[in-house]
Write a structure and sequence with these properties.
8 helices, 140 residues
């Protein structure tokens, strides 16, 4: 008798959990089958978060940390959203990117990545700098 009640309780608990998960997923914006609704939900979330103060604070931190990939990301976000950032900060960020993205700097980064695979900054850099040399390293 107790086992039957226990099994019934577990079955009801499982059925309730599945029903609740179904209700929650049906109301989630990314669970809708249309790509447009997912894009709209993402755009609303970015618009609510990406304020000029938020982006300028993060951009200043990225410039101070000398993280060019983050700097490029925040500048692109500000450009796409039409955010007005402090001109001095944008100038610093632009100078940092110009210094980092020159062909000589990229060649040095690629050589460092080819020498030590742990220093690769992106997957693309790993693919075109380090991987072509990997078979030669293991052959010796």
């Amino acid at each position: 008798m107790i086992r039957r009640l226990a099994r019934l309780a577990l079955a009801l608990w499982a059925a309730g959990s599945v029903a609740l998960a179904g209700v929650l997923l049906a109301q989630h914006p990314f669970a809708e089958p249309t790509l447009e609704s997912a894009r709209a939900a993402l755009a609303r979330a970015v618009a609510a978060t990406a304020t000029p103060g938020f982006v300028s604070t993060r951009l200043a931190a990225a410039v101070a940390a000398e993280a060019p990939l983050d700097v490029a990301l925040y500048l692109e976000l500000a450009r796409e959203r039409g955010l007005a950032l402090p001109p001095g900060l944008v100038g610093e960020a632009g100078a940092m990117l110009a210094e980092d993205q020159g062909w000589l700097a990229e060649a040095g980064d690629c050589a460092a990545c080819a020498w030590d695979i742990g220093s690769c900054r992106t997957l693309a850099e790993l693919g075109y700098c380090a991987l072509p040399l990997e078979p030669r390293r293991w052959a010796t």
